[in-house]
Amino acid sequence: MIKIENMYKIYKMGDNEVRALDGINIHILKNEFVAIVGPSGSGKSTLINMIGCLDTPTSGKYYLDGIDVSRINENKLADIRNRKIGFIFQSYNLLAKLTVLENVELPLIYMGLSKSKRHALAKDAISRVGLSGRENHRPNQLSGGQQQRVAVARALVNNPSLILADEPTGALDSKTGQELLAMLKDIHSNGNTIVLITHDKEIAQNAKRIITIRDGKIHQDSEVKAQ
Amino acid sequence: MSIFQAVKMSLKSISSNRMRSFLTMLGIIIGVAAVIIMVSLVQSSTAQIKAQMESMGTNMISVMLTGRGSVRNLSINDMQKLVDDNTDYFLSVAPVLNGNPTIKAGTENDVTSLIGTNQHYSSINNAEVEFGRNITERDCLNRSKIVVIGKYIQNRFFPGENPIGKEMKISGQVFTVVGVLKAKTTTIAQSSQDDRIMIPYTTAQRLLRNTAIRSYSFQAANAEVAEKASQKLEDLLLKLLGDTNAYRVMNQAEMLESVQSITGTMSLMLGGIAGISLLVGGIGIMNIMLVSVTERTREIGIRKAIGARRSSIMTQFLIESIVITLLGGALGILFGIAGTSAIGKAISLKTSVSLSVIALSCGVSIATGVFFGWYPANKASKLNPIEALRFE
User: Fold this and answer.
1) CB contact A192 to B (< 8 Å)
2) What pLDDT sits at residue B57?
């Protein structure tokens, strides 16, 4: 599913060279639930941008579903983000002026689906996260937990093979955080690959495998024992 | 993403920022309205002048004698001989003496414009007699004190009565009214073409104490030879006077042309000035769109993260500025049409707004939207999604 080989990302700041990613090798299989942990500044944000096809590496290879995405152009990257990846962000990142339904539909608009298909798929995704009946609300009329669930619905709607969750519980209280993690587990059990980024070791325990990053290098890669 | 989707998105963002969108549009509204009003008014007044000139007579060629000697050397008889010798080209000639005498009938008095001429003036200059009679050759020979009056004079001095046979004093001398001219204008106002009187030129020479006739109206034999006739006349006058500065020949086509070239320049100039306000409006749009791109950096980041291509973002912002200018253009056209007819009414000018002006301003406003929307849209589409998502 994800195969990263010898990935480097080097930023030049004046004379200094910052190695955000310093020779990363990761192999993630289909239907895995992986948590990537590390302190801030460890390079995990850079790594998630790479995995999410938002950025291209200085050197190294990245295969997503067998496609080498480390060297393809911007438009193709946009299409891959659109079809293969669903993003869940810490700060929800919903569009405030659109309704819940319109927010969830957005990836499908860029996919070019017809209105009736978009509606059916979006409604289905909204009911999967338990927000049926709130399709016409605006994000600011919902609680934080509900907003994050809208974001989950948006990530799910195009049925992506990979779901990337970047600190998804960061802005939530522990109870709604737990609910959200339960939802991610549920999605995982339905066959999606999930990569969860967090700095919280406890949250990482929800995953099946934990990769620890430190100074742009993989520090530890271990299975989580079944609880 | 389809254009339809982009239009829907842009309408949504325009309506969610109503006040700002309206202020942005205002520049385009004022610009388009100004272009339409300026150009329409000039076009309408050109049409009016043209209609007036055509009503003055068809196939008319006017001659002005400018040199001193030429007046002494050429009399009305010489002019008549020119006509008689060249009947292929000319039909008739009428001398024209102008004056502005005070006229009096009963207790009323007023100043009007006087034309001293002969029997041909009426047909050359389209000044038909409505009732009564025209000036005759005999009147000219006898220096008769008879007068043909315009419609305004009739309404002013003889309201509700038959003026024929009535007496009227012109510069203190008593004249008899023998005819009334058909109205030339619809308003029959003072100082219009209906505010005038016509007397025999021989009588006028005495009345105005001026024997020199400087101005003649020739009538060409027909419309086909009008141009040639005017050339012929120049040749004949040059032969007779030997000096091109001693006379001026003008035919109607030339006069129309000169009027049209003046009004054409005017409409270009006024349209250009109005066009500058369109340009300013366009810069306003660019400014607002740049602010909007900065404000919506995060939105752009989100859209890109979930799979919007650069072209989709570009289309979205470009369509937004085009929709703003189109809406502004449409409102501007409405205001332009309303403004034109309001001003037309105020200055009693019959106005019409031509389709070409509307099409032009429509095109210009779309072009403004594309031109000034391009840079901000391009800027939006080039944003890096990672940085855009981090933007607060």
Assistant:
1) no
2) 65
B365: nearest Cα among B24, B18, B32: B32
Are residues B241 and B67 in contact, defined by beta-carbon separation less than 8 angstroms? yes
> Cβ atoms within 10 A of the Cβ of A33, count?
21
Question: From the CA of B388, how many Å to the nearest CA of chain A?
Answer: 11
Q: What is the pTM of this model?
A: 0.72
The mean per-residue pLDDT over the stretch B314-322 comes to 90
Q: Do B309 and A54 touch (CB under 8 A)?
A: no
User: Measured between alpha carbons, how far is B316 from B166 in angstroms, rounded to an integer?
Assistant: 80
- Look at residue B298 and give its three-state secondary structure: helix
Pairing state of beta strands A16-28 and A67-68? unpaired
- Distance from the Cα of B327 to chain A's closest Cα (Å) equals 22
Question: What ipTM is given for this predicted complex?
Answer: 0.91
Within 8 A of B391 by CB-CB distance, chain A residues are: none
**CA atoms within 13 Å, Cβ hemisphere of B222:** 2
Please determine, for residue A155, whether its predicted confidence score (pLDDT) is greater than 90.
yes
User: A54 and chain B: CB distance < 8 Å anywhere?
Assistant: yes
Chain A residue nearest residue B386, CA to CA: A54
Give buried/exposed letters for B278-289 (b at 16+ CB in 10 A, else e): beebbebbbebb
Cα–Cα distance between B137 and B134 in angstroms, integer? 10
For residue B43, pLDDT beyond 90: no
Q: How far apart are CA B301 and CA B390, in angstroms?
A: 8
Query: pLDDT tens digits, residue range A56-103?
Result: 888 999 999 888 888 788 889 999 999 999 999 888 899 988 899 999
Find all residues with CB under 8 Å of A162, minimum gap 6, and list them. A1, A2, A51, A64, A84, A85, A86, A192, A193, A194, A195
Structure tokens at B31: 């610009």
Token pair of A61, please? 């290879």
CA distance A75 to chain B (A): 6
Of B193, B261, B197, B170, the closest CA to residue B55 belongs to B193
First to last CA, chain B: 27
Is residue A227's pLDDT more than 60? no
Asked if A119 has any chain B CB less than 8 Å from its own CB, the reply is no
| Span B135-184, pLDDT tens digits | 999 999 999 999 999 999 999 999 988 999 999 999 999 999 999 999 88
Evaluate if residue B25 carries a pLDDT over 80.
yes
